[in-house]
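As the work plan foresaw, our protein records have gained a structure token line. A representative record is set out beneath this paragraph:
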Amino acid sequence: MNKKIFLISLLAAAAAAPLAAGDLHGKVACKGVRDNADAVVYLAAVPGKSFPAPKEHAKMDQANLVFVPHVLPVLVGTTVDFKNSDAVLHNVFSADACADKFNLGTWPKGESKSYTFKRECAAALLCKVHPEMEAFVVAVPTPYFALTKADGSYTIANVPDGDYTVKVWHPKLRATQKEVKVAGATEASFQVVK
């Protein structure tokens, strides 16, 4: 085989090979709230990469007069289907400009309405029929995100090795961020406060 052809094929194989990846994991300590759940941990960007919106819709239900889940992280461009599982009318709206101040109207049990989150946003969701209901859709710029458990633990799988800004958002606490170098399995913990 010609040396030039061999080098070209070797470079093409290297370019096609996936980057090394590991899990980014750790804990988020949420000071001043009941537990450490509902914090969204995500990579702010992956240099040189953009991510198409997923074809599959995310789901949020309205059941027993609460939004389920309370916090739903999604990739920017994701369409969320809002279902009403209660025997009463429900509504979904957001007053946040980043979500275009949408209002889906009111609909009965068993029906769903949808909205696409077109840009990065932490949108508070409310119901005009039941003002005590509140939830959040957090649209983030990369598919590398996780929602913390009650103990604050999170895992983001298959993060390509590299240097990243990792951000943390919580519905009741101040957002935070830090620089993290991911090399295989990498631990990064955070603290968020009021």
Remarks:
- The CA atoms of residues 169 and 175 lie 5 Å apart.
- The first helix runs from residue 3 to 16.
- The domain at 52-140 is CATH 2.60.40.420 (Immunoglobulin-like).
